[in-house]
Amino acid sequence: MTAATPLVEIVSTGRYLPDRVVTNRDMESILETSDEWIFERTGIRERRLAPPGMTAAHMGAGAARIAMERAGVAPEDVDILIVSTATPDRWLPATACDIQALIGARKAVAFDISAACSGFIYALTLAEGHLSTGRGEIALVIATEKMSSIVDWEDRATCVLFGDGAGAAIVRKSSGERGILGTHHQSDGNLAELLYRPAGGAAIPMDEEVLRDRTHLVRMSGREVFKHAVRAMAGASKQALALSGWELEDVDLMFPHQANIRIIKGTARYVGLPMEKVFVNVDRYGNMSSATIPVAMDEAIEEGRLQPGMKLLLVAFGAGLTWGAMAVRW
Ligand code: ACO
After folding, report:
1. Cα separation of 13 and 243, whole Å?
2. Quick one: which of 52, 48, 51, 53 has its CA closest to 15?
3. What's the CA gap between 7 and 129, in Å, rounded?
């Protein structure tokens, strides 16, 4: 198969993480849990939690400013601003519009997408479509998540898994070999209730009963999600590789959604990649939903691990269920 030609490339990244570090030991003081239990099952040691006044928009704007500065892009140059979030600050308007106002991206068309943990790569695909059909030159893709605001702090099986943070990327038309090659996205709404917030939306609006039963908070069937995650991410990775014209051996670095080290290891094993080629930081941040991939990429660049010319595989899975993978030449 001949190699695909990229339409757009990621030219820079940025990240914003709240300062407050909450370790598993800290969790022991508020929940009946232990560092051993959490670490053994998830690989998580600590996560960042945003203070009450810090919104998803603040974190997203922080990550965006860094990505724009690194790309030499002024806010007023941004043509499209897409925000992936499972934790919008308000139901109306989109968090993207709040970020637009915060950073001064005056001419950008701004909107949110809802694809849970898969949202960053879904948003990259939307940016690719927008730019490659001539609707603009510069896209700002942001994933920002204040997961601490939607998890149930009385449910020890879920609240220990998540953290807060944001990542961002500037995307432009590709000028050469760099860029997004094969992409595969998939969803299965029949499995929506494996990971969801049962109430608090239009179907069951917020009322005293909802608040009492805490059904506006995240509910998850952990084992089922685990099983689907590994299978789906491995399948999507293979599809993206086939579409890009790459062999498995070509992949230099994989950026899997950072939900859980066992899901990451299972995915790598099914795909056939050694863990040396897999970027992991779930130990320090937990699951920041769609923000995990851009934050990981940003750290890999800073550490010098992500080098020009490398062939990358981004792969994610989340509520919906949604999943997908993307082959990217860096
Ligand atoms: N501390 C101590 N004990 C706990 C905790 C905790 N934090 N949470 C649950 N337990 C207990 C349970 O009460 C249960 O006790 P019991 O046997 O007395 O009833 C026991 O541990 C086992 O509970 P399980 O839920 O069966 O534990 P399991 O081994 O399945 O691990 C886990 C749970 C870690 C959530 C696992 O299912 C998992 O990793 N699932 C993947 C979910 C995930 O990562 N989702 C992220 C969102 S989707 C995405 O981003 C990909």
Report:
1. 25
2. 48
3. 9
Among candidate residues 9, 4, 38, the one with its CA nearest the CA of residue 24? 38
Report pLDDT digits (tens) over 224-259: 999 999 999 999 999 999 999 999 999 999 999 999
3-state secondary structure of 213: helix
Residues of the chain with pLDDT below 50 are 1-2
97 Cα–ligand 1 center, Å:
36
Burial of 173 from C-beta contacts in 10 A (0-12 / 13-18 / 19+): middle
The SS3 assignment for 4 reads: coil
The pLDDT score that the predictor gives to residue 1 is 47
What pLDDT was estimated at residue 175?
86
Cis amide linkage into residue 93, ω under 30° from 0: yes
CB 115 within 8 A of CB 318: yes
Token representation of residue 229: 């995650």
Residue pointed to by tokens 């509520």: 319
Q: Is the pTM of this model over 0.85?
A: yes
Tokens of 270: 């099914």
Ligand 1 surroundings by CB, under 6 angstroms: 33, 37-38, 41-42, 117, 156-157, 160-161, 195, 220, 222-223, 225-226, 229, 257, 259-260, 263, 287, 317-318
